[in-house]
Amino acid sequence: MADVEQKSGFPRLLAIGLTIAAIGTAVLTNPSKAAYLNYATGQFGDRFDSLCGEIELPGVLDGLKGIAQETCDAAASAGRDLTIGGQSPVATAIGTATEHQNFLIFSLYKTQVLNQKVTTIGAFGQFLSLPNGQ
Question: Structure pTM?
Answer without folding.
Answer: 0.65
